[in-house]
Amino acid sequence: RDTFPMDVAAFDSCRLEAVPVEFGDYHPLKPITVTESKTKKMGRKGSTSSTSSSSSSSMIDPLSSVLDGTDPLSLFAATADPVTTADTTRKKRDKDDSLVVGSDFEPWSSKRGEILARYTTTEKLSINLYMSSEKGKATTPGSAVSEKVRTRLEELDDLEEGSQKELLNLTQQDYMNRIEDLNQSLKDAWASDQKVKALKIVIQCSKLLSDTTVIQFYPSKFVLITDILDTFGKLVYERILSMCLDNRGSLPDNFTPESVNDTAKETCLNWFFKIASIRELIPRFYVEAAILKCNKFLSKTGISECLPRLTAMIRGIGDPLVAVYARAYLCRVGMEVAPHLKESLNKNFFDFLLTFKQMHGDTVQNQLVVQCVEIPSYLTLYSPAIDWILQCIAYRAPEVLLTEMMERCKKLGNNALLLNSVMSAFRAEFIAARSMDFIGMIKECDESGFPKHLLFRSLGLNLAMADPPECDRLQILNEAWKVITKLKNPQDYINCAEVWVEYTCRHFTKREVNTVLADVIKHMTPDRAFEDAYPQLHSIIQKIITYFHDFSVLFSAEKFLPFLDMFQKESVRVEVCKCIMEAFIKHQQDATKDPVILNALLHVCKTMHDSVNALTLEDEKRMLASLINGFIKMVSFGRDFEQQLSFYVEARSMFCNLEPVLVQLVHSVNQLAMETRKVMKGNHSRKTAAFVRACVAFCFITIPSLTSIFARLNLYLNSGQVALANQCLSQGKIGVCFNCIIILSCQKTEYYYDQSRGCTRVIRKLLESIKAGAGSERVCCWRTEEYKRYQTPGGRSCVRE
Amino acid sequence: MGTALDIKIKRANKVYLCGEVLSGVVVITSKDAVQHQGVSLTMEGSVNLQLSAKSVGVFEAFYNSVKYTLRCDMRRSLLAKDLTKTCEFIVHSPPQKGKLMPSPVDFTITPETLQNVKERASLPKFFIKGHLNSTNCIITQPLTGELVVENAEAAVKSIELQLVRVETCGCAEGYARDATEIQNIQIADGDVCRSLSIPIYMIFPRLFTCPTLETTNFKVEFEVNIVVLLHDDHLITENFPLKLCRV
Q1: Which residues are bridge partners to B179 per DSSP?
Q2: Closest of A131, A271, A287 to residue A206, by C-alpha
Q3: Which residues 107-166 on chain A approach chain B with CB closer than 8 angstroms?
Q4: Which of B7, B163, B191, B197 to mutate to test the interface with A (most CBs of A within 10 A)?
Q5: What are phi and psi of A374, to 5 degrees?
Q6: Are residues B159 and A144, on separate chains, in Cβ contact within 8 Å?
Q7: Residues A590-604, buried b or exposed e (16+ Cβ, 10 A)?
Q8: Which residues are CB-neighbours of A618 under 8 A, at least 6 positions away?
Q9: Which GO cellular component terms, listed alphabetically, does the Swiss-Prot or TrEMBL entry include (chain A) (predicted)?
Q10: DSSP readout, A34-60?
Q11: Burial of residue A228 (number of CB atoms within 10 Å: 0-12, 13-18, 19+)
Q12: In chain A, what are the helix, strand and coil shares in percent, each to the nearest 5?
């Protein structure tokens, strides 16, 4: 009915010739796009699959379309018009945009890990499963009714026989493993065509979500179990989709129910009937939500009818925590399947607000007493769910809606929990613009409820991303810091301070940052509280160096170095030093001689250097050395060559354990000597000659301490050349130098024939430079003698030259 | 494998109405040529009657004992076995003409409205109200309504909808009445929020329900019970007879 009676292959080749290939968007079998009246219909059908099926209800009869003058070929010519094509393509994209969540929506997968890491427990957990062993038998579709009754009865018997399995005393890790096992057995059951068993596993898993013993673990449990539900939803959807396969190939992504065949529909319907008969509310809800997407097979409006019903269904869940997570799941599935259906998202949130009072009701309070959980930590369990719901609502939502949400939150007593979620979910710009309002609201919050420091932290996170109005900035900082500085618990304090440092760096100067640092030091020093806060302290440093690129300003903040002193664990300390050096190398534009910078950075580099020991990995050493080298290269005293040399001498004494640094120093000193020569235009005065000799001496003393033969060889060569160029023949140093080269190269060539070419090259260069140099006879004589003494295969070839 | 028979009915849901033509194909798969002495198709409808365990001498008809099957036989020579394949299908009574009049019911459940109470004084106070959108139901449409727990002294443990099929069978000498729970759907779990309406929603199970049937000596009727279970193990039930039909 719906296919074109055209030769698809011929058509395709035709397209390739005439149209610049519009990736995925354009399809020759959908040429109706051109006629204005039909454009809208087409937009919906935009298929990104490359298959040639174009079945859909809106497809018009091919024969009549020919009569209309909209036959594929003539239309085809018309679509070649780039303007029309581009236009329709864009229209289609716009339309598709509302049907698919964009990349600016933070996906659930990024929240998962965070929740699992945050909501943990040391309490023992238990899993209660009513699985009978012999559920493997899949009831064949269409089996006799009485047969079904019989299997049902058998299953009931199984339950009574005590097939219930209760796993007690599981640690959190055991629990997670068990859930993973269940996930695997779900996939196995599915793969071996045991659909009933698969459904049972899913039902059992979702049942676990009604259990709120060990309530601190609930958010993590939710994450684990909804993973299984997602797997199940995908399996069912794909199975039904695969049933739609027929001679036309697979269905396009945006198929319509009319193009789904009856068998697939019947199977889909069967799933829904089966799920509708699940006795318990929570599993029935979760399993149906998991396969929400399958509604697409049955009717166009299926999802938009289902969502409100499922939303209302959650009202039956008595436990407010269980209910809010159910809402979060529904929003999650809803956003995935039909992000344009905003009303149910809002409805979910409003329903949640209606049940808000339950949190302080007797049932919940009694439960908390039994489990010994404090109210503030109980309230934080809601955050991931509410954050998620609000994030879904706030996604591309108009400002008015956000304002309305905020007003609603304001109206409820003890709204800290909501306030926090509003701040985490809404756009940073929105929050930042109302910072003063938020600070006011935070101040009014009940002390015994949701932890206040979390509120300030959330606000700080927003302000780190978006700027508040210029006039409020200082007041915001003052108001916030007034509260933060009063936090007694160092962990709470540092979590807040860490976030607010960014705001301070963003909008204020060294002075304010210095004050903040001083405050942090004051709070974190007693009882060595900093030991538990290294990650946060590290992040503070990182934030500061991202905003302050001028290191002279940075180091002149008097609290910066004392702040660094708080990193007393060596590994952390070195990491921090690395960060600083990286930033310095990246941002420092010009060479510097600023004593403040030099002092501080030498100190930082020394720390890095001193961390090197026998166990340090090669890679790590390379890393550290390259950072230190980066620093050395950035130091310049300009014309003050002596000062420069004495800096190098100091550096050598400081970084003697890192060979690449020594190599760099030799190079730097050689360069310095050459600089001097340049300044003197080749004719050294007495003073400069002495200076150059000092430079050469520096090199010849430094080189022997290197272990790498080739590094030594090359450096000797370089230094020798430099010495030659600077007429330091009398020194005898060159002799020593060349002597060393020859000894080294000869020794080495004996052992490493394969590398002899390298040595030969060095020697050849050496000879060249001697020729180019003064050509002192003394050197020449000496040369021949030496060569004779050390005749080796490699050496011999040189002598011949 | 040798030769195999298969019946493929055209309708995926295998549901037919009285007077309709059941069509489809018989598929014979075989590697080689098959010799046979005819392929025949038989249709069979049966009711499986069982002696009642309760009242002697009375037959009890279980709802699920009504069965329609299609059977295909292939007769073969002496050397090969005859082949048989059966396939079940469902017959729906023809839909009734005319529109169904919705019959909404409001209800209130308080300790005072209860019957069969031994000690009314020991009951916790509660006030539950709600409504069913209609007790005349179309079998393919869900039963819908709302329920609100306005207040309850004891915590609510669970609220369930219990669908019961009542079969009455007999004549002047006596009759047997048999009530079976065919579906139980929980609509509230735990201590639900007060004054917040909870949806009543139940899909009638396809295999266990049929239009309400009334003949001189045989009746199939349906009822729904709203069961409220309180934490102190008080069980409150409110019964509503339903009239199911197919439209």
Answers
A1: B166
A2: A287
A3: 142-146, 148-149
A4: B191
A5: -75, 150
A6: no
A7: eebeeeebbebbbeb
A8: none
A9: endosome
A10: GSGGGHHHHHHH---S--S----TTPP
A11: buried
A12: 70, 0, 25
- Note the ipTM here: 0.85
Cβ under 8 Å to A: B residues 173-202: 183-193, 196-199, 201-202
CA distance A732 to A730: 5
Q: Which two tokens stand for residue B200?
A: 């009543």
| Alpha-carbon dihedral A612, A614, A616, A621, rounded to 10 degrees | 60
Instruction: Name the minimum distance, in Å, from the CA of B159 to any CA of chain A.
Output: 8
Which tokens belong to A420? Answer: 């926090």
Listed residue (A746, A783, A750) closest to A768, CA to CA: A783
Q: How far is B172 from chain A (nearest CA, A)?
A: 31
Residue of B nearest to A308 (CA): B199
The candidate with the shortest Cα–Cα distance to A230, out of A351, A347, A133, A107, is A107
Taking an 8 Å cut-off on Cβ atoms, the answer to whether A319 and B190 are in contact is yes
From the CA of A113, how many Å to the nearest CA of chain B?
29
Residue A745: is its pLDDT beyond 90? no
Tell me whether strands B15-17 and B24-29 are parallel, antiparallel or unpaired.
unpaired
pLDDT at A407: 79
Asked whether the beta carbons of residue B159 and residue A316 sit closer than 8 angstroms, the reply is yes
Query: Cα–Cα distance between A263 and B10 in angstroms, integer?
Result: 10
The model carries a pTM of: 0.69
Per-residue pLDDT of chain B (247 residues; tens, 9 = 90+): 578 889 888 888 888 888 888 889 999 888 888 888 888 999 888 877 666 565 555 555 555 567 888 999 988 887 778 889 988 888 877 777 667 788 899 999 888 888 877 777 778 888 999 999 998 888 888 999 999 999 888 888 999 999 998 888 776 667 777 788 889 999 999 888 888 999 999 999 887 888 888 877 778 889 999 999 988 888 889 999 998 888 7
Cβ contact, residue pair B205, A273, below 8 Å: yes
Distance, in Å, from the CA atom of A269 to the CA atom of A271, rounded to the nearest integer, reads: 5
Cβ contact B190–A317 (<8 Å)? yes
For residue A190, the one-letter residue type is W
pLDDT per residue over A581-611, tens digit each? Answer: 998 888 888 888 888 888 888 888 998 898 8
The number of C-beta contacts closer than 8 angstroms across A and B is 99
Q: Which two tokens stand for residue A765?
A: 């260069």
Cβ separation of A354 and B196 shorter than 8 Å? Answer: yes
For tokens 């003197």, the residue is: A680
| Tokens encoding A129 | 């499963």
